[in-house]
Amino acid sequence: MADKDTTDPSSTKGGAAEESTAGTPYAGIAPTSEVVAAVKNVSSQIHDFAGVPGKASEPGPGVSECEGRDPDTHYQVYHPWNFMPKSGADNDIAMENFRKKLVGGGWVLKDSYIDNSPNRNLNLIADNDSKKVSVWIVGYSKNTVPSIGINVRSACYQVPEGQTVDHY
Prior knowledge:
With about 170 residues, this protein is an alpha+beta fold. It has a single domain (about 25-160), classed as Protein Transport Mog1p, Chain A. It contains 2 helices and 11 strands. The chain has helices at about 30-50, 90-100, and strands at about 5-15, 15-20, 25-30, 55, 60-65, 75-85, 105-115, 120-130, 135-140, 145-155, 155-160. Strands 3, 4, 5, 6, 7, 8, 9, 10 and 11 form a 9-stranded mixed beta sheet that branches. A two-stranded antiparallel sheet has the order 1-2. A hairpin with a 6-residue loop joins strand 9 (about 135-140) and strand 10.
């Protein structure tokens, strides 16, 4: 998704597709419930990638507008959650597991960097173009209670004709 294919077939003039002005790639037409379920499945896969015991936070996915598009017909799904490994050492192991797993199975690791915070947290950003999602993972290994912040986000979708966006 970082290599943005922002062509939206619903916005054509004279048969030629126009480029989106928004930075989020267009993924096609799908009901909100279908994309929410797909993002939940990706979050479950990411959870499995951790490879260490721990607890995931409870809040589920949400639906947001796609910048520069009609908010009644276009949307993207986001799912921010937190993973708390049983120990601080497991936090580092999980981050290494994420780094290894986000380079195959359709995943492409787009960026890996240490942020400028006092704790110098490891950040991983990856895309899965076939699933039309991105993930941003931040390892808070040096916090008093180590954890990992995970945000899965879909591309921009359009609801089928006659439907409106269901907000979760």
